[in-house]
Amino acid sequence: MKFRLQAFTLIEILVGLAVFALITGVIAAVFVVAHRYTRLYQQVSRAQREAVQCMREISRDLLRGRSETLRPSVAVNATWFLSNQPPEGSVKPAEFSPQGEVLWHKWVGIWCQSDGDVRRSEIVLPGVAQTILAVDLTSCPTLLSAFTALPRFRRLASSISRFEVVCDAKVITVDILGESQNAGNPATRYHLSSSFLTH
Fold it and tell me: Taking residues 112-130, what's their average pLDDT?
């Protein structure tokens, strides 16, 4: 019994290689696109997460602040204000005078650095907590450097390209723009805005 081996012609081999290369190219393209969209999703997720974190931290401080002490009244990437929150590290709740007036403890400064970090520091009022009438508002820090020069600060968020705080009467509006970018991808931005009443 004889067996005959059947060989492929050169044309059949070239067609087979072309089909294999086409399928391999399609699979590689799918993986490249999926990887790119995964990176874009990570960018969007990071920009959103940091913007929400920044809004939560800034709002928490502003809700304990005095609206008419907000400096400057339209603040871009830097603001400071009088706060009734006890100094950082203290576990005391908000304090009131015997007449029921809120007592004020410190000046809080918040700023955004060129690297996207949003930082916070505070200057405690001299002496004991005071009512708003007893606070010497003329001693309000006039420049952000009063806060940035302090050795202790807390980072509130990163990947923030801009924040703005606008005070209109007792309504404070906060706008935050988060921005994130991975190598090879365009920057992704996430805008968040919130308004609330304060003291």
Answer: 92
Residue 35 CA: distances (Å) to CA of 26, 31, 57, 183: 14, 6, 33, 13
Euclidean distance between CA atoms 14 and 31, whole angstroms: 26
CB-based contacts of 123: which residues, under 8 Å, 6+ apart?
A: 106, 107, 109, 141, 146, 147, 150
User: From CA 86, how far away is CA 173, in angstroms rounded?
Assistant: 24
Separation CA 122–CA 159 (nearest Å)? 22
Please give the model's pTM, rounded to 2 decimal places. Answer: 0.80
Q: Please check whether residue 163 is in contact with residue 170, taking contact to mean a CB–CB distance below 8 angstroms.
A: no
Q: How far is CA 180 from CA 27, 36, 52, 153, 171, in A?
A: 29, 14, 14, 23, 30
Q: Is 160's pLDDT higher than 70?
A: yes
Whose structure tokens read 């050169």? 10
Tens digit of pLDDT for each residue in 26-60?
888 888 777 777 777 888 888 999 999 999 999 99
